[in-house]
Write a structure and sequence with these properties.
This protein has 215 residues and is mainly α. The chain has 5 helices and 5 strands. The protein has one domain.
C-alpha cells in the first residue's frame, strides 16, 4: 500500500459521502438550470410561475399565529396548512428575484461546505493528516460554516420577510429575523469543533517536527 493509499483510507468514509452529495448537487444544479432556461413557467422572461412563501415564525397555535389579521394583496392568496402560506399567481420580477434570493443562500452554503471538505481531504492525501496545511484547511472550513450559516440565515429570513410584506397587508413587518439564532446552534458547534481540531492538528504537526529534528 502506497502512502497515498494510506492517506486515502484516513479520509474515508467522508470522502465518498462528499463526492456523492457533490455529484447530487451538480446534477440538481444542471437540471434546475435546464428547467429555468427551457420551462417558460419558471423563467423571468416568459410566463411567470407561481411564487409561494411560508412564514417560518407562524406555526399553528403559536404566539405568532395571526392569520386572521393577514390580508393578501390583489393577485395573491393566503392559505392555512399548519403554517401561514402566501402565494402570488402572477409574481412580479421583484417577487421572483426575492424567491430566488431566499433559496440561494442554502445552496451556496452547502456547495461551499462540500467544496472545502473536498479541498481539505485532497490536502490531507497529498501532505499527510498532521500538517500545517491541513490545519489551515480545517480552520478555513470551520470559519466558513460559522460565518456562512449566519449569513445564509440572515439573507433567507430577510428575503422571506420582504416577500411576506410585499404580498400581504399587515400593520407591522414579520419579525422573522429574530429566528436567526434558532438556525445557528448546530453550525456554530460544528464550526467551533473544527477550529479546535485545527489547533490539535497544529500541535501534532509541531510535535512531529520536533521529533524529526531530534532524529
Amino acid at each position: 500500500m502506497t502512502i497515498d493509499d494510506e492517506h486515502r483510507v484516513l479520509t474515508e468514509p467522508l470522502e465518498s459521502v462528499t463526492k456523492f452529495f457533490g455529484a447530487l448537487m451538480i446534477i440538481a444544479a444542471l437540471v434546475g438550470g435546464a428547467l429555468f432556461v427551457f420551462d417558460s413557467g419558471m423563467s423571468f422572461g416568459g410566463v411567470p410561475g407561481i411564487v409561494c412563501v411560508t412564514n417560518p415564525g407562524a406555526q399553528y397555535s403559536s404566539s405568532n399565529w395571526n392569520t386572521p389579521f393577514v390580508i393578501a394583496r390583489p393577485g395573491h392568496s393566503v392559505s392555512i396548512n399548519g403554517s401561514l402560506d402566501v402565494c402570488a399567481d402572477h409574481p412580479t420580477l421583484g417577487e421572483q428575484t426575492l424567491s430566488v434570493v431566499a433559496a440561494l443562500p442554502a445552496v451556496l452554503f452547502w456547495g461551499g461546505v462540500l467544496f472545502l471538505l473536498w479541498r481539505m481531504m485532497l490536502t490531507a492525501r497529498r501532505n499527510g493528516p498532521f500538517t500545517p496545511r491541513v490545519a489551515a484547511a480545517v480552520r478555513r472550513l470551520g470559519w466558513f460554516i460559522i460565518i456562512g450559516s449566519t449569513t445564509a440565515a440572515v439573507v433567507n429570513l430577510t428575503a422571506i420577510d420582504t416577500l411576506l410584506t410585499i404580498m400581504t397587508k399587515i400593520d407591522s413587518p414579520f419579525p422573522n429575523l429574530i429566528l436567526v439564532p434558532l438556525h445557528l446552534p448546530v453550525p456554530i458547534l460544528a464550526g467551533a469543533a473544527l477550529l479546535t481540531f485545527a489547533r490539535i492538528i497544529e500541535a501534532g504537526a509541531a510535535m512531529d517536527a520536533e521529533i524529526q529534528a531530534t532524529i
